[in-house]
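U., I forgot to send this yesterday:
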Amino acid sequence: MGLATLDKAIEVAINVEASQRVKVQKKDQVYIVDTIEELQREVHNLQMIQAKPRQSKLVTPTELLQRIRTQIISYKGRGSLRGRGCGRERGGFT
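Result:
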């Protein structure tokens, strides 16, 4: 094997190694781009979920609650609810 053949073999080996490095870098870049696109889709889906109006339980209007409170308080002072206990005295339970 001559010196020229040895130099040529070394050059080919270096080129093959460099080519393999380039392929690995391209695969890494493709993986990174795919990961970024997947994350963008995930973020978009999360934004769409947050933007959808949520169906919540109905809230009773404040005016209606205030009227019910007023009715309860007005009955409390009439004495109509007194005397309905189980024979309790003024001291409470004994």
